[in-house]
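Q: Got a minute? One more chain.
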Amino acid sequence: MNLQSPFLSVIVVTYNSQDFIGDCLESIKRAGVQACKSANVQECKGENGCSFWETIVVDNASVDGTVEVVRQFKWVRLICNSENLGFAAGVNRGAKEAIGEWLLLINPDCVVDENAFAELYEFAQKGDDEIAVIGLQLLNSDGTLQPSGRRFPKVWEFVLALLGFYRKMEAKWFEGRNFAEVQEVDEVSGAALAIRRKVFEQIGGMDEGFFLFFEELDLCKQVKAKGLKVVYLPKAKVKHLWGASVKRVPDLARKAQKRSAIKYFGKHHGLLAAIFVAIAFAIRDFASKIRQNF
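A: Always. Here it is, folded:
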């Protein structure tokens, strides 16, 4: 099999990820080599990469040893930002350097299953050009399911989720899901999300106004608006240490979640929706402070 350009460009955005980026990159290499065997790519060279897949790491000015760890993987293309530009901007910078038919966004706190890329390739070759986004199945570190592939949250549902009814709203968002089957969904997690590069470019990439959180919802919203499909692929599996990255910057993550949520609902539902969401955050934060004082 000879490819004029790689099938897959893997993009990993890092920030102070030294404790897990090594395992992530090792798993990407294993999955890449296995996919080459499945696709009969004769020129696969393992650590030196090949014509089937490439890996790009975009580091957002880490202050730990992340960059030093990544540099040990000679087959990885490393891009170092001089400041923390956020996840969306990091993805966009990696995408500009990518040449693959598909872009695969992988969080640095993920370990990719050995067969994941092969399963993704097999599914993508079935010829449904309307499929623009494919979400890989997420698993917890113990192998249990980490739900992904929900419908878009409505404004009132998100407000209630903030005010203490998260589990009930989450059940509504995942209603009707079968995590063992390929299903068309509204959105999938950005922890392991594949998107056709031409579609990514058509919609202008990720909205860099989202520093962290909600950027994948916005991306999937734009894809669906074009009449294209977002699909959940359970055979392509990734273990995700959920929250491992954001736990290192809890204050930044909380502020980013609030700003991104308000931006998302304002962008897609209007000013009044953004105001309602902002008020819900204020009530939640006020209630939290009261509880802390008692």
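A: Residues 271-292 form the longest helix (22 residues).
Q: Perfect, thanks.
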